[in-house]
Amino acid sequence: MIYARDVTKYPNDELRFVIYAPRYRDNSGGAIVMHKLCDVLNDMGYSALLYPLWKPLSLPSALFRSPRMTFAYLLARAYRGKYATNAKYNTPLAKQRDIQGSIVIYPEIVSGNPLRAEKYVRWLLHRPGFHEGHFKYSPGDLYFCYQEAFHKNCRDMVHGGSLTIGDTLLDIYKQTNYGERIKTCFIVRKGRARPDLPDLKHQWVVDDLSHEELAKVFNECKFCYLYDTYTAYAQYAAICGCIPIVVPLPGVTKEQWVPEEKGRLGVAYGESDTEHAVTTRPALLCFMQETSKKNREAVAHFVEAVKKHFKT
């Protein structure tokens, strides 16, 4: 693993970022995009580092202030070993001294300011409270949304706009089967607590497969039903020629689910929407092929909003 500040100074080093991120897992969308943000910031000449999520600044203090999170971190470290990164990304790790003078980026699952940063922003990768059940933000906090559907419960905060970062894995997910398809698979993931989740005991649930295995499954299946309404696996299924059907949340319209049309490309919201999924699949592929350019545009907007907010 690489540690900074021992790296060569970046051209845009007047802004330094520390991203409070979980370990990299290739089946965790949140982990992927946080590590990818670090990579893009560094690629654009800024100095960006990762600080392991829940890693305490001081162990005795952390055990007193937030014992549950501290024990969770220690158990994860003991069980999984060292903090994992993606070797393809430029994601050096931060030490405690790097926090001073940097802008810390917290995901929405983090309440308060655990790294005691002088300047920090929040990045809502899901609806606040979805994972932890609770959250505590402060009036005046600057925040960005991964998508507009997550723009919730942010009263008296400052909205910096959208920050959508992606890594499309188009080297893995691609259509190889142009013949007849008759199989159906199911993805549950974050939808496991849904009250309308049926008994899928005898169905083909593919939650625990690797990306390579899923690409093969998506090329075998005609349909993939998703009870996790916000997952990139819907788009991955689509570009493999499968029709992803997001099972609608009760009482939630298509526009409420994902307000932006670009976020619905290639995906059906309910069985009656499959024609839309098929007809917009080519546009989805074009959109995903431009991900690198869009990442840089999103980061440029993010940096300008941060500069304006902190007047740097």
Number of strands: 10
Mean pLDDT over all positions: 89
Helix content: 25-40%
What is the percentage of strand-forming residues? Answer: 15-25%
Question: Can you write the helix and strand succession as a string?
Answer: EHEHHEEEEEHEHEHEHHH
What's the structural domain tally?
Answer: 2
Number of helices: 9
Structure class = alpha/beta
Regions with little confidence, pLDDT below 50 for 5+ residues: 1-8
Largest sheet: 6 strands, parallel
The CA-CA distance between the termini, in Å, is: 31 Å
Net shape: globular
Sequence of strands across the biggest β-sheet: 2-1-3-4-5-6
Radius of gyration: 20 Å
Q: Your description of this structure?
A:
By secondary structure, the chain is α/β, with parallel strands linked by helices. The protein folds into two domains: 16-167 and 291-310; 183-279, no CATH class. The protein contains nine helices and ten strands. The strands form two sheets. A six-stranded parallel beta sheet has the order 2-1-3-4-5-6, with helices on one face. A four-stranded parallel beta sheet has the order 7-8-9-10. Helix 2 (59-65) crosses helix 3 (67-80). The chain is globular, with a radius of gyration of 20 Å. The chain starts with 15 loop residues before the first strand and ends with a helix. The relative contact order is 0.12.
